[in-house]
Design goal:
By secondary structure, the chain is mostly helical. Among the domains are: about 100 residues, Orthogonal Bundle (Helix Hairpins); about 25 residues. Helix 2 runs antiparallel to helix 3. The longest helix has about 60 residues. The protein is elongated, with a radius of gyration of 63 Å. The protein starts with a helix and ends with a helix. Belongs to the SNF7 family.
Length: about 220
């Protein structure tokens, strides 16, 4: 028997055992629940009996309360047992779910091993290298096809610059031709315009007298 079967058993046996255990726990819980309901009724009856006797028959009232106390103790134990049974049911359900998850993981692992059995890391790397090489070749082919020079469509930047200069010259010439008439300017007079006066100012009187005096002295 394999280690897996030793600890977990076969799938069929596990399912049967888990189902049987769950059924037993559910039956036990139902039985305890009925017993709990019975004790609750008995407690209510004894309480009513104690009230009915009251002060009329104190002895009977005390006996009824004593029986009620005994029923309450039993009820407490049964309620605790029900909690334990329900916790076991939940634990069993979780165990079954964990076992199912374990089986799924195990099957997944075995499937992956089968898929990877014929796949070696070196082969995968070779394939990836081939793919990268083919992508480079495809890119080179695409660049060659889309190159304008291949079809004589290569653009000469100098030629474009000369064409732009010619267009700018045409625009400038057109703007000069579109200029309107010049504004009116004053007409040139036909007669000669007098220039600045050439009359020399008379010499100062004192200078003239000085010259005459010097001539007389000679």
């Amino acid at each position: 028997m394999s280690t897996f079967k030793k600890f977990f058993g076969s799938k069929k046996n596990d399912a049967s055992n888990a189902k049987a255990a769950a059924k037993q726990l559910e039956e036990t819980r139902d039985l305890l629940t009925k017993k709990s309901e019975f004790l609750e009724k008995k407690i209510e009856e004894e309480l009513n009996t104690a009230r009915r006797y009251g002060m009329k028959n104190k002895k009977m009232a005390l006996k009824a309360l004593a029986r009620k106390k005994g029923y309450e103790n039993q009820l407490q134990k049964i309620d605790n047992t029900i909690l334990i049974v329900e916790s076991q049911l939940q634990a069993l359900d979780n165990a079954g779910m964990n076992l199912e998850v374990f089986r799924v993981l195990k099957n997944t692992s075995e499937s992956m091993k089968g898929l990877h059995k014929n796949m070696k890391l070196d082969n995968v790397q070779d394939i990836m290298d081939d793919i990268a090489e083919q992508r480079e070749i495809a890119q080179e082919i695409s660049d060659a096809i889309s190159n304008p020079a291949t079809f004589g469509l290569e653009i000469d930047d100098d030629e474009l610059a000369r064409e732009l200069e010619a267009l700018q010259a045409e625009d400038l010439e057109r703007q000069m031709l579109d200029v309107g008439p010049l504004p009116d300017v004053p007409s040139i007079p036909s007669h000669e315009i007098a220039g600045p006066s050439t009359v020399k100012p008379q010499a100062d009187t004192s200078e003239k007298d000085l010259e005459e005096l010097m001539a007389w002295a000679e």
